[in-house]
Structures are given as C-alpha cells and as structure tokens.
Amino acid sequence: MSMKRILVIATGGTIASTGQQGQLAPTRTAQELLRQVPLLDGLCDIDYVQLMNIDSTNMRPHNWLDIAGTIQAKYSDYDGFVVLHGTDTMAYTAAALSYFIQDVEKPIVLTGSQQPMDHPFTDAKINTYHSVLYACDPAAAGVVIVFSGQVICGTRAHKQRTMSFNAFTSMNYPILAVFRNNKLIRNVHSLTQTSNVVSAENQNIAAEKTDEPRFYRQLDGRVIVLKLTPGLDPSIFELLKRDYRAIVLETFGVGGIPEHDGASYERAIFDWVDSGRTLVITTQVDEEGLDLGVYEVGRAYAHHPGILRAGDMSVESVVAKTMWILGQSSSSEERAELFYRVINHDRSDVE
Q1: How many domains are contained in the chain?
Q2: What is the mean pLDDT of residues 153-180?
Q3: What is the CATH number of the domain that holds 150?
Q4: pTM of the predicted protein model
Q5: In the predicted structure, residue 22 carries a pLDDT above the cut 90
Q6: Which of 14, 251, 278, 322 is catalytic?
C-alpha cells in the first residue's frame, strides 16, 4: 500500500515563533518546524507550503480564502492537509474553512501550540505529530482541530484557556476522538454522524451530498459581534449601520434582550433588519445555547424576518457562517436557508 501524501500549510503563530527583542514573533518556516518533529519520517510523504508567517491575531477573512484556495489548488494531489496556525484565532479559521470547503472527504486538520517549537517544554511536537497521524487515518475526513490529544469538530472549537496546553474545548458537541499512546480512539457518537444531518421535517434545507467538495470564494466581512451589557444604549444599532451588514448579538441567558426606561431595543432591532441588514441572535453564555421562547424578553424576536437564531452554535462559527452567507445570498430568505443548513455539525437544533 502506498504511503499517504499530506500537505502541511504553514501560516505562522506561536508554533513558529522565536524571541525577537524579548517578544515572540513567527519566524520559523514550515521546513524548520517539520524537521524538529520526531517520528514523521516513514509515517507519510509530506510536502509543505509557507503560505504566510503571521501572528494569528492578524489573521483576517481574506487569509481564510487564501488557505481554502491553496487546499482547492492542491486537493487532487494530496490525501490530507495540516494547517499550522496560531491558537488565538484558530477556531475562527477552522469554522471558516468548514463553510468555504464543504462535503470534503479528505481531512483538513488545524493545529498549533501554546509554546513555540524551540521551547524546551513545547507542546508543538506532539500536536504536529498527532495532526499528521490523524490526517493519515483512512477514516478521517472534514475540518477538525487536533490539539492536546483531542480531535474537535471544526465548527465547535473554542479557545477556553490562554496558557494551558489543553487550550481548546468543544462547544455543545462531543469530542470526535482522542489520542492515547499515539493511537486514535474515536468517540462512538462521531462514527454515527454525517456532515449534513437534519431532522426529517427539515430535509429541504440540507445541502445535497456530492462526490466532490464544494469550494466557495465569496464572503462579506462586514459582520460585528455586539455583546449586551446592562445599560447599553440601543442607539448603537444606528451607529453601526454605516460600516456593517450584520450584527451577531450576544444576549443575556437563553436570549434575554432588555426593554426598559424608554430605551427601545425592539424598535432599534426591527429597524436594523427591516433596512435589509441581518441580525443573528446568540447567547453570551458559552454552553447549552439559545431559546428565545422561554422568556417574554426574548419572545418578540423569535420569528421576525431577518432575525436569525444561532441555537447552540459557537460564536466563532456564527461569525464565519454569517460572513459566508452574506457572500452567497442577496435576500433574507436565502440567508435564512443557508444559515439554518447544518454544515460540519455546526448546530444541533435545526430551526
């Protein structure tokens, strides 16, 4: 049996960083990084491309398209892809790739590290090795993050810790697999799922499965996350109109939006969406998701046209998906159809 061919796409991040005037900055190349990872020789045939070398804080939506475009250009030449990436925005990139590359039957793995590859106690070597090992697995497919011995769905990852090696958690969805003694052990749940699972009554909004992946090249980055805080003036919606087409509104609890002292959030929100813009309502609570029907302070927004409900999606996925749908659609109906489509397990409550 021939060895798998894996392409490593290096983008920078902590994993590639060295000390520069007392501060870390990405300087190591893909070749230099791979040379320091034990056991890769003989595991597979590895090629690499140095796509960029930036701190992931500087990762922007057009960089997501560059990564997706590189995978598209090389897709037929390789069995899997490993993206070396900084941790701070890795969850956003993983979510974005899930929307820009759909129905993918090959693994697209993102990884990085909390300490640089040159650090004496780095986690970079094991994370890179596990990522390549996962990319070589014959059953591996789709966009995932491999980090600290865990395989996390690309639309469900969230950076929970700033310094610990177990930096990422899976939001409202089971871990897909773990590594134990460098052996991949899959979660039974992940073996029974497909990338576009929907309930029977909602099959009309599922993407049709194709034999080839679908690549998308359009997005609209005019999306902002607005977090409700006590006393926030709803006039902010008017101020945001000039620069943004969509707001991701992080509400209180399961969907609470205040209405008091003549400060009319309802009027401001309805005016926002009635002007042709998009509002996605989510919760600022990390776990268990949104339900606008529970309290009176959220019920008014449950079914107004132009208002989308994020359910149990991560905020990273909500942001990336909203940018994606704005790039594909021109009407609120089309945007709703795309937003509620289940892609790479991004939501478990199809509306």
Answers
A1: 2
A2: 93
A3: 3.40.50.1170
A4: 0.90
A5: no
A6: 14
